[in-house]
UniProtKB/TrEMBL annotation:
Nudix hydrolase domain mapped to chain residues: 38-180
One Pfam family cited in the UniProt record for this chain: Peptidase_M49
GO cellular component: cytoplasm
Alphabetic keyword roster: Hydrolase, Metal-binding
Name listed for the protein in its UniProt record: Nudix hydrolase domain-containing protein
Entry-linked InterPro entries: NUDIX_hydrolase-like_dom_sf, NUDIX_hydrolase_dom, Peptidase_M49
GO MF: dipeptidyl-peptidase activity; metal ion binding
PANTHER family per UniProt: DIPEPTIDYL PEPTIDASE III-RELATED (PTHR23422), ZN-DEPENDENT HYDROLASE (PTHR23422:SF9)
Domain of life: Eukaryota
Claim: Lipoprotein is one of the keywords in the record: no
CDD domains: NUDIX_Hydrolase
């Protein structure tokens, strides 16, 4: 027999080799691993039967070198060197029990470290186990199992509580497990079996109450009949964008959405689940540090007729489409069991062109072994030295993008504006070619009453590296007067860049005027889950930013709704009575403009100390979004003061802009410290508070110290801009770790807002768009 080979780990679970390739990985045969007690990886797969609350156990073969003849996990096995965890789980289940299930049946619960010594010290097991749960609705007939005789002698069902009691008593018929660690499995199952419907409904109601319902509309009378007809087609394309985004969040997310919608009227609890899902677009709550408000037990039931050998009278397996308790940092852009080391090692083996594709905005990273699983379980790595490969969005989302492309082409044929016509046709072509350059240029040149933003843009959902763009759509009617009023800001970007509190070596040389468009939003879709976007500054393509700069879109009716429903109530509770009157919409709106402008200035393309050219985004990776949001915010505040000093803005707004900014800090921090804007805002608040620019009073209100705020703002602006200019991820991480915390005064304020139930954000409905779509 050919011995297996394993990756050898440290006692903290890290691979011992920096270079992770099949050819060079540091491996030992399994016999030596257990002789020496080397740390290695394995998978544990538990099958749980929802209707009977039972677990499937296997009886280990009498010939096994550890725990022979004892009852054990449904299926388990080592992860061979270089193999992905999920594929190993699928393979072990099929090999040992003859059950073939797709990846969405496997829910990774946790990693369990098992350390034990057996056979008089001859067998030392130091094993990091990836623990998976497969939830099926009804028992599989025992005769449907195909047992691997070398490994398994029998299977049986046992109630999870009975099994836990046997383990606690150390029953000699069962493989022992430490319930201090492995007890988490039983706790999770118990939570799902003992549901308190009333308590869950109450919890979801409280979560929903944090969003204030608002209606957003606009006047279409200035649109021609042809433009209105085109608008209907564009709205349909935007609905397709939503479908793509659901899939980008997690591979089983669309199935969960469809299941929740289908059962939304089954009970009050099911209605609440559906309403909250529509806000978050996933089972993780944006305002609760992405804590799950649903579990796999709430998920879609799927039927699989050929998962086992056929049995007369039995139709097949029904299972729950699984999702992990912890939101995957890489979303569905990367394999769920891929870590940074594996990706970085793979990247080092690629050509420069391949690297650009792998780290680019518009590709998904996948596994060859996953693609080959159905064809072969034994030679799934034979066609490549690496299991990873990149695939363009145009292929991954082809059915969706083909449909959206057709709709945009039809709309482009109808519209009267030549710039909009060019945008719609070029974007339709980009969906199919995966080349977005021309369509992004067309978007920057857009001069139309009907304002459209549609495509893959922001990278917030890629929390692993910040490389991958999520699809989104914003459709609105341009507010011509408000747009004309804001020309001042776009025209002075070069002046702001030249005077940034930053060493000249890091300043951008090619900064051009940034067009600013103000719109009344009538529909959005895609990457707008949780807190609503008030403005955006695009594109993010460094090549275009260097050549042309960026353009900004302000969603005025969204900002008005947030000011009325959120910022004003916050000010009434948190801002000191003496300064409360300084909080006004003009200051809030103007700072938002400067925030978006400041995304376009400061370091973007940079030169590293070793002479290599790179970008801030590429170097800061997963911390980029939070740092960039903090930069835009604080430098935006610095820019307002600078423009006032230059006489370009009225000095009368100086105090109001600082106090309105203070009130806005609490608005954004309430989004949570896992969200880029909330994280960036916590950094700013705590820095300014530390410098004495924000003052906490005995009555638990805050005020601005106008004698200290200017210097504090400039010092933080310099700190963040310099970190970006150097591409210093370590410094960025240290800064975030130090200041992105809920300090005592901040906690007091947030609890005060929670106690009086001030909304955290808005939940918009779009009746006009609904009418047009119908």
């Amino acid at each position: 027999m050919v011995e297996e080979h394993f990756d050898v780990l440290t006692n903290s679970g890290e691979k011992t080799e920096v270079i992770w390739t099949i050819a060079n990985v540091y491996v030992f045969p399994w016999s030596k691993v257990h002789q020496d007690g080397d740390y290695h990886r394995a998978v544990n797969v538990w099958i749980f039967v929802e209707s009977t609350q039972e677990l499937v156990l296997q009886r280990r073969s009498d010939d096994k070198d550890s725990w022979p003849g004892r009852w054990d996990i449904s299926s388990a096995g080592h992860i061979s060197a270089g193999d992905p965890s999920l594929i190993s789980a699928q393979r072990e289940l099929e090999e040992e029990l003859g059950i073939k299930l797709p990846k969405d049946a496997f829910e990774k619960l946790f990693v369990f470290l098992q350390e034990c010594v057996l056979n008089d010290g001859k067998f030392i097991n130091n094993e990091f186990n990836d623990v998976y749960l497969v939830t099926i609705l009804h028992p599989i007939p025992l005769e449907a199992f195909t047992l691997q005789k070398e490994e398994v002698s029998a299977v049986k069902y046992i109630h999870y509580e009975e099994y836990r009691n046997l383990l606690s008593k150390k029953d000699p018929a069962y493989v022992p497990y430490d319930l201090n660690g492995y007890g988490k499995l039983f706790h999770i199952i118990r939570q799902r079996c003992q549901v308190n419907t009333e308590a869950r409904s109450l919890s979801l109601q409280k979560q929903l109450q944090r969003y204030s319902p608002v209606t957003l509309e606009a006047n279409l009378t200035e649109l021609s009949e042809a433009d209105q007809k085109a608008l209907g087609l564009i709205l349909k394309a935007a609905k397709v964008i939503d479908d793509i985004f659901y899939e980008q969040l997690w591979h089983s997310n669309p199935a969960l959405r469809d299941w929740l919608k289908e059962h939304a009227n089954a009970s009050e609890l099911d209605t609440l689940k559906w309403k909250y899902f529509l806000i978050n677009k996933s089972p993780w709550s944006s305002l609760d540090e992405n804590e799950p408000y649903l579990s796999t037990a709430d998920s879609a039931a799927k039927f699989l007729p050929e998962a086992t050998k056929p049995i007369d009278g039995w139709k097949g397996i029904e299972y729950r489409a699984a999702f992990p308790l912890t939101k995957p940092p890489g979303g569905n852009f990367y394999p769920p069991d891929m870590d940074k080391m594996e990706f970085t090692s793979w990247l080092s083996s690629l050509t420069e062109e391949q690297k650009r594709a792998a780290t680019g905005f518009f590709s998904v990273i996948k596994r060859r072994s996953e693609a080959n699983l159905d064809a072969s379980l034994s030679d799934h790595l034979s066609d490549s030295n690496s299991d990873l490969y990149s695939s363009p969005y145009s292929e991954i989302y082809q059915p969706f993008l083909t449909k959206a492309s057709e709709l945009l082409h039809k709309a482009g044929d109808l519209v009267t504006s030549q710039s909009l016509k060019k945008l719609l046709h070029s974007k339709a072509e980009a969906f199919l070619s995966n080349d977005y350059y021309e369509s992004d240029i067309a978007w920057m040149d857009l001069d139309s009453k009907l304002d459209i933003t549609i495509g893959p843009y922001e990278t917030y959902e890629d929390e692993m590296f910040g490389y991958k763009a999520s699809f989104e759509a914003f459709i609105g009617i341009r507010d011509d007067k408000a747009t004309a009023d804001l020309k001042l800001f776009g025209d002075n970007l070069k002046l702001l860049e030249d005077n940034l509190p930053l060493d000249s070596v890091y300043k951008s040389k090619d900064v051009s005027a940034a067009p600013i468009r103000v719109i009344q939003l009538i529909y959005n879709s895609g990457d707008v889950n949780g807190p609503q976007t008030v403005a955006f500054n695009l594109p993010n393509d460094e090549k275009i930013v260097k050549e042309r700069g960026t353009s900004m879109v302000m969603l005025k009716n969204v900002q008005e709704a947030k000011f009325e429903h959120i910022l004003k109530p916050i000010a009434e509770i948190i801002i000191s009575k003496e300064q409360r009157g300084f909080v006004d919409f003009d200051s809030f709106f103007t700072h938002t403009i400067c925030h978006e402008c400041c995304h376009g200035i400061g370091p973007h393309s940079i030169t590293l100390p070793d002479g290599r050219t790179s970008s801030v985004r590429k170097e800061l990776q997963d911390v980029y979004s939070a740092v960039e949001e903090a930069k835009a915010d604080i430098v935006g505040l610095w820019a307002l003061k600078f423009l006032i000093t230059k006489g370009l803005l009225s000095k009368s707004m100086e105090e109001s802009m600082y106090v309105s900014f203070l009130a806005g800090c609490f608005r954004s921090i309430r989004f949570g410290l896992t969200e880029a804007h909330g994280k960036g805002q916590a950094l700013q608040f705590n820095w300014l508070y530390e410098k004495g620019a924000f003052v906490f009073h005995k009555d638990s209100t805050f005020s601005v110290d106008f004698t200290k705020i200017e210097d504090a703002v400039e010092s933080l602006s310099r700190e963040i801009l310099t970190i970006q200019g150097r591409g210093d991820k370590n410094a960025a991480t240290l800064l975030l770790n130090k200041y992105c915390t809920i300090t005592g005064p901040l906690k007091t304020a947030l609890e005060k807002l929670e106690s009086v139930k001030v909304p955290v954000d808005i939940s918009p409905t779009f009746p006009l768009a609904k009418t047009l779509l119908n």
